[in-house]
Design brief:
It is built from 10 helices and no strands. The chain is mainly α. The protein has one domain. It is globular, with a radius of gyration of 17 Å.
Length: 249
Protein backbone atom coordinates (compact mmCIF):
# COMPACT_ATOMS: atom_id res chain seq x y z
CA UNK A 1 0.00 0.00 0.00
CA UNK A 2 1.16 3.53 -0.78
CA UNK A 3 0.99 6.26 1.83
CA UNK A 4 -2.00 7.82 0.05
CA UNK A 5 -3.87 4.51 0.03
CA UNK A 6 -3.20 4.04 3.76
CA UNK A 7 -4.49 7.55 4.49
CA UNK A 8 -7.61 6.98 2.38
CA UNK A 9 -8.31 3.66 4.11
CA UNK A 10 -7.89 5.26 7.54
CA UNK A 11 -10.25 8.11 6.59
CA UNK A 12 -12.83 5.59 5.35
CA UNK A 13 -12.75 3.67 8.63
CA UNK A 14 -13.03 6.85 10.75
CA UNK A 15 -15.91 8.20 8.63
CA UNK A 16 -17.68 4.83 8.78
CA UNK A 17 -17.69 4.71 12.58
CA UNK A 18 -18.54 8.38 12.90
CA UNK A 19 -21.71 7.52 10.94
CA UNK A 20 -22.22 4.44 13.15
CA UNK A 21 -21.96 6.61 16.26
CA UNK A 22 -24.51 9.06 14.86
CA UNK A 23 -27.10 6.66 13.50
CA UNK A 24 -26.42 3.23 15.03
CA UNK A 25 -25.77 1.66 11.62
CA UNK A 26 -24.04 2.31 8.31
CA UNK A 27 -20.38 1.68 9.12
CA UNK A 28 -19.97 -1.12 6.58
CA UNK A 29 -22.16 0.70 4.04
CA UNK A 30 -19.67 3.57 4.12
CA UNK A 31 -16.42 1.65 4.55
CA UNK A 32 -16.80 -1.44 2.34
CA UNK A 33 -17.35 0.34 -1.01
CA UNK A 34 -14.36 2.58 -0.25
CA UNK A 35 -12.00 -0.08 1.12
CA UNK A 36 -12.50 -2.41 -1.86
CA UNK A 37 -10.73 0.20 -3.96
CA UNK A 38 -7.60 -0.94 -2.09
CA UNK A 39 -8.30 -4.48 -0.77
CA UNK A 40 -10.15 -7.52 -2.16
CA UNK A 41 -13.74 -7.97 -1.01
CA UNK A 42 -12.85 -11.26 0.69
CA UNK A 43 -10.43 -9.32 2.93
CA UNK A 44 -12.68 -6.31 3.59
CA UNK A 45 -15.73 -8.37 4.62
CA UNK A 46 -14.07 -10.22 7.55
CA UNK A 47 -12.23 -7.03 8.58
CA UNK A 48 -15.48 -5.06 8.83
CA UNK A 49 -17.33 -7.99 10.40
CA UNK A 50 -14.93 -8.05 13.36
CA UNK A 51 -14.81 -4.25 13.64
CA UNK A 52 -18.60 -4.00 13.60
CA UNK A 53 -19.03 -6.58 16.34
CA UNK A 54 -16.61 -4.65 18.57
CA UNK A 55 -18.48 -1.40 17.84
CA UNK A 56 -21.81 -3.11 18.54
CA UNK A 57 -20.57 -4.24 21.95
CA UNK A 58 -20.01 -0.62 22.99
CA UNK A 59 -23.25 0.72 21.49
CA UNK A 60 -25.36 -2.15 22.80
CA UNK A 61 -23.80 -1.68 26.25
CA UNK A 62 -24.87 1.97 26.20
CA UNK A 63 -28.37 0.94 25.13
CA UNK A 64 -28.59 -1.61 27.94
CA UNK A 65 -27.58 1.00 30.51
CA UNK A 66 -30.34 3.28 29.23
CA UNK A 67 -32.79 0.34 28.89
CA UNK A 68 -33.40 1.25 25.26
CA UNK A 69 -32.95 -2.19 23.62
CA UNK A 70 -36.25 -3.79 22.59
CA UNK A 71 -35.36 -7.48 22.80
CA UNK A 72 -38.71 -8.67 21.47
CA UNK A 73 -37.87 -7.10 18.11
CA UNK A 74 -34.43 -8.71 18.14
CA UNK A 75 -35.99 -12.11 18.84
CA UNK A 76 -38.23 -11.89 15.79
CA UNK A 77 -35.22 -11.28 13.50
CA UNK A 78 -32.69 -13.87 14.70
CA UNK A 79 -34.01 -17.16 13.16
CA UNK A 80 -34.22 -15.92 9.56
CA UNK A 81 -31.01 -13.93 9.98
CA UNK A 82 -29.13 -17.18 10.65
CA UNK A 83 -30.59 -18.72 7.47
CA UNK A 84 -29.69 -15.61 5.46
CA UNK A 85 -26.10 -15.67 6.69
CA UNK A 86 -25.66 -19.29 5.58
CA UNK A 87 -26.93 -18.46 2.08
CA UNK A 88 -24.76 -15.34 1.87
CA UNK A 89 -21.55 -17.14 2.81
CA UNK A 90 -22.11 -19.62 0.00
CA UNK A 91 -22.43 -16.70 -2.43
CA UNK A 92 -19.32 -14.95 -1.06
CA UNK A 93 -17.01 -17.89 -1.66
CA UNK A 94 -18.59 -18.94 -4.96
CA UNK A 95 -19.43 -15.81 -7.00
CA UNK A 96 -17.35 -13.44 -9.14
CA UNK A 97 -15.91 -10.63 -7.02
CA UNK A 98 -16.35 -7.85 -9.61
CA UNK A 99 -20.04 -8.60 -10.10
CA UNK A 100 -20.56 -8.59 -6.34
CA UNK A 101 -18.82 -5.23 -5.99
CA UNK A 102 -20.95 -3.62 -8.70
CA UNK A 103 -24.09 -5.03 -7.06
CA UNK A 104 -22.91 -3.58 -3.74
CA UNK A 105 -22.43 -0.12 -5.25
CA UNK A 106 -25.93 -0.15 -6.79
CA UNK A 107 -27.46 -1.37 -3.54
CA UNK A 108 -25.75 1.34 -1.45
CA UNK A 109 -26.75 4.14 -3.86
CA UNK A 110 -30.36 2.91 -3.96
CA UNK A 111 -30.57 2.91 -0.16
CA UNK A 112 -28.98 6.36 0.01
CA UNK A 113 -31.50 7.78 -2.50
CA UNK A 114 -34.36 6.23 -0.56
CA UNK A 115 -33.26 8.06 2.59
CA UNK A 116 -32.40 11.34 0.86
CA UNK A 117 -35.74 11.58 -0.95
CA UNK A 118 -37.70 10.65 2.15
CA UNK A 119 -39.41 7.67 0.53
CA UNK A 120 -39.90 5.89 3.84
CA UNK A 121 -43.42 5.30 5.06
CA UNK A 122 -44.01 5.65 8.79
CA UNK A 123 -46.80 3.19 9.60
CA UNK A 124 -46.22 0.33 12.05
CA UNK A 125 -45.89 -3.00 10.22
CA UNK A 126 -46.53 -6.58 11.30
CA UNK A 127 -43.66 -8.45 13.01
CA UNK A 128 -44.01 -11.07 10.27
CA UNK A 129 -42.04 -8.66 8.07
CA UNK A 130 -39.05 -9.74 10.18
CA UNK A 131 -38.87 -12.89 8.01
CA UNK A 132 -37.80 -11.17 4.74
CA UNK A 133 -35.85 -8.55 6.73
CA UNK A 134 -33.82 -11.24 8.48
CA UNK A 135 -33.22 -13.33 5.36
CA UNK A 136 -32.11 -10.37 3.23
CA UNK A 137 -30.19 -8.66 6.04
CA UNK A 138 -28.32 -11.83 6.97
CA UNK A 139 -27.56 -12.66 3.32
CA UNK A 140 -26.33 -9.19 2.36
CA UNK A 141 -24.37 -8.96 5.60
CA UNK A 142 -22.55 -12.21 4.89
CA UNK A 143 -21.66 -11.18 1.32
CA UNK A 144 -20.85 -7.49 1.84
CA UNK A 145 -20.78 -7.01 5.64
CA UNK A 146 -23.51 -4.39 4.97
CA UNK A 147 -26.70 -6.06 6.14
CA UNK A 148 -27.96 -2.99 7.99
CA UNK A 149 -30.54 -1.56 5.53
CA UNK A 150 -33.10 -4.40 5.69
CA UNK A 151 -32.93 -4.32 9.50
CA UNK A 152 -33.15 -0.52 9.56
CA UNK A 153 -36.15 -0.46 7.19
CA UNK A 154 -37.97 -3.06 9.28
CA UNK A 155 -37.14 -1.63 12.72
CA UNK A 156 -37.89 1.94 11.65
CA UNK A 157 -41.46 0.70 11.01
CA UNK A 158 -41.61 -0.86 14.46
CA UNK A 159 -39.88 1.72 16.70
CA UNK A 160 -40.54 5.46 16.58
CA UNK A 161 -37.98 6.62 19.17
CA UNK A 162 -34.53 7.22 17.61
CA UNK A 163 -32.74 6.16 20.81
CA UNK A 164 -34.63 2.86 20.96
CA UNK A 165 -34.02 2.36 17.24
CA UNK A 166 -30.25 2.89 17.55
CA UNK A 167 -29.95 0.65 20.62
CA UNK A 168 -32.07 -2.16 19.14
CA UNK A 169 -30.19 -2.03 15.83
CA UNK A 170 -26.90 -2.30 17.72
CA UNK A 171 -28.18 -5.38 19.56
CA UNK A 172 -29.21 -7.15 16.34
CA UNK A 173 -25.91 -6.15 14.70
CA UNK A 174 -24.03 -7.65 17.66
CA UNK A 175 -25.84 -10.98 17.37
CA UNK A 176 -25.80 -10.97 13.55
CA UNK A 177 -22.10 -10.09 13.47
CA UNK A 178 -21.17 -12.77 16.01
CA UNK A 179 -22.91 -15.42 13.90
CA UNK A 180 -21.21 -14.12 10.74
CA UNK A 181 -17.80 -14.28 12.40
CA UNK A 182 -18.33 -17.97 13.17
CA UNK A 183 -19.29 -18.55 9.53
CA UNK A 184 -16.29 -16.58 8.24
CA UNK A 185 -14.00 -18.59 10.50
CA UNK A 186 -15.42 -21.86 9.16
CA UNK A 187 -14.94 -20.54 5.60
CA UNK A 188 -11.29 -19.70 6.41
CA UNK A 189 -11.65 -15.98 5.70
CA UNK A 190 -10.60 -14.91 9.21
CA UNK A 191 -7.26 -16.69 8.90
CA UNK A 192 -5.78 -14.36 6.28
CA UNK A 193 -2.27 -12.96 6.85
CA UNK A 194 -2.13 -9.33 8.03
CA UNK A 195 -5.82 -9.23 9.05
CA UNK A 196 -4.91 -9.04 12.73
CA UNK A 197 -2.54 -6.10 12.17
CA UNK A 198 -5.17 -4.18 10.22
CA UNK A 199 -7.69 -4.79 13.00
CA UNK A 200 -5.27 -3.38 15.58
CA UNK A 201 -4.69 -0.32 13.41
CA UNK A 202 -8.42 0.15 12.87
CA UNK A 203 -9.52 0.03 16.52
CA UNK A 204 -8.33 3.56 17.48
CA UNK A 205 -9.99 4.97 14.35
CA UNK A 206 -13.20 3.15 15.25
CA UNK A 207 -13.13 4.44 18.84
CA UNK A 208 -12.55 8.03 17.70
CA UNK A 209 -15.33 7.84 15.12
CA UNK A 210 -17.83 6.40 17.62
CA UNK A 211 -16.94 9.06 20.20
CA UNK A 212 -17.40 11.97 17.79
CA UNK A 213 -20.51 10.40 16.24
CA UNK A 214 -22.19 9.87 19.60
CA UNK A 215 -21.82 13.54 20.48
CA UNK A 216 -23.17 14.56 17.08
CA UNK A 217 -26.13 12.18 17.54
CA UNK A 218 -27.32 14.05 20.62
CA UNK A 219 -27.77 17.32 18.71
CA UNK A 220 -29.25 16.05 15.43
CA UNK A 221 -32.90 15.66 14.55
CA UNK A 222 -34.03 12.40 12.95
CA UNK A 223 -34.33 14.06 9.51
CA UNK A 224 -30.91 15.74 9.73
CA UNK A 225 -29.32 12.42 10.68
CA UNK A 226 -31.04 10.71 7.73
CA UNK A 227 -29.79 13.33 5.23
CA UNK A 228 -26.18 13.17 6.45
CA UNK A 229 -26.08 9.37 6.23
CA UNK A 230 -27.79 9.40 2.82
CA UNK A 231 -25.22 11.78 1.31
CA UNK A 232 -22.35 9.67 2.60
CA UNK A 233 -23.97 6.55 1.14
CA UNK A 234 -24.33 8.19 -2.28
CA UNK A 235 -20.65 9.18 -2.33
CA UNK A 236 -19.50 5.76 -1.12
CA UNK A 237 -21.67 3.66 -3.44
CA UNK A 238 -21.21 6.01 -6.40
CA UNK A 239 -17.44 5.77 -6.17
CA UNK A 240 -17.63 1.98 -6.36
CA UNK A 241 -20.00 2.00 -9.35
CA UNK A 242 -17.67 4.45 -11.14
CA UNK A 243 -14.72 2.16 -10.49
CA UNK A 244 -16.43 -1.08 -11.53
CA UNK A 245 -18.49 -0.05 -14.58
CA UNK A 246 -15.58 0.02 -17.09
CA UNK A 247 -15.07 -3.71 -16.44
CA UNK A 248 -18.63 -4.41 -17.65
CA UNK A 249 -18.66 -2.34 -20.85
Amino acid sequence: MSGLEMLAAAAAVFAAYLVRGVSGFGSALIAVPLLVHVFPLTFVVPFMAVMDVIAAVFLTGAGLRDRRVRWREVGWLIPTTVAGIAIGLLLLVGMDGQALQLALGIFVVAFGLRNLLGLQAHKIVSPWWSIPAGLVGGGIGAVFSTGGPPYVIYLSHRLADKGELRATMSAIFLLDGSIRIVGLLIAGLLLQPQLGWFLLAGLPLMAAGLYVGHHIHVGLSQRQMTIVVALLLLVSGGSLIYRMLPDFW
